[in-house]
Amino acid sequence: MSTDEAPTKGRVAKRQAILEATRAVLAHTGYAGTSIDSIAHQAQVSTRTIYNHFGSKDDLVNQVLVESTTTVADALTELIDQHLDRIRGTADLEDALVDLGCDWVRLQDRYADHFSLVRRLDAAGEQLPADVYAAWHATGPERAQATLARHLRLLRSEGLLSFADPERAASHYIYLALGEALAEARRGGVEAEPTAIAALVRAGVHAFLHGHLPRPSAP
Fold first, then answer.
1. N- or C-end of the chain: fewer Cβ atoms within 10 A?
2. Which long-range contacts (CB under 8 A, 24 or more apart) does 35-41 make?
3. InterPro entries attached here (predicted)?
């Protein structure tokens, strides 16, 4: 290892320790209760070290949220593509939407630390600076909904679904297919009752399709 590489590796390690400490403190105390001092204590670094890496608390929180949310959004985008790209006709539609919903819910366990943080911050979203809140939502929830809307638009063009606004249809799917299932998963864990989770997702998909399947033309 060259003499130039050692300081660089040390700096990267400290930066990662600061990010992990920030994530832990945010999940425990929320945005308002998080301070540079508490992050420094958790990361076992000085406050000066934190300011050398990040300009402010808001810059640091924004970086943590964007990095964490991007990872989950990447996984969600992959799931949406995987399940909805396989639809070839009406016979595939319901099962693909149900399978997507079940896998979407399972991400709660796969990224438990992220969703614990999100629930804590979402409950007090008004405390986050507007630009931090906007960056978080644009990177995660809005990106996932936009990906879903793009697929639903394609399904509409193939005559498999009917709606005026793809973004609104994506929102309907998220609330109907995922709402109860996500709430149940948060209460008892996704793996506790997978059959019950699947039943909730399927019931929500039925409601979604009831509103968005094409209607026969009047004679």
1. C
2. 36/60
3. DNA-bd_HTH_TetR-type_CS, Homeodomain-like_sf, HTH-type_TetR-like_transc_reg, HTH_TetR, TetR_C_Proteobacteria
Are 50 and 15 contained in the same domain?
yes
Question: Lowest-confidence range among 33-37, 134-138, 168-172, 210-214?
Answer: 134-138
In a domain, 217, yes or no: no
Domain that holds residue 85: 58-212
Q: Do 140 and 96 belong to one domain?
A: yes
Confidence of residue 126 (pLDDT cuts 50, 70, 90): low
Q: What is the pLDDT of residues 21-68, one digit of tens each?
A: 998 888 888 888 889 999 999 999 999 999 999 988 889 989 998 999
Do 105 and 145 have their domain in common? yes
C-alpha distance from residue 83 to each of 17, 39, 80, 92, 100 (Å): 36, 40, 5, 10, 6
- For the cut 50, the answer to whether the pLDDT of residue 4 exceeds it is no
How far apart, in Å, are the Cα atoms of 218 and each of 90, 136, 138, 215?
21, 46, 41, 9
DSSP string, 158-184: TTS---S-HHHHHHHHIIIIIHHHHHH
**C-alpha distances out from residue 219 to 24, 64, 126, 161, Å:** 62, 57, 52, 20
CATH code of the domain containing 42 = 1.10.10.60
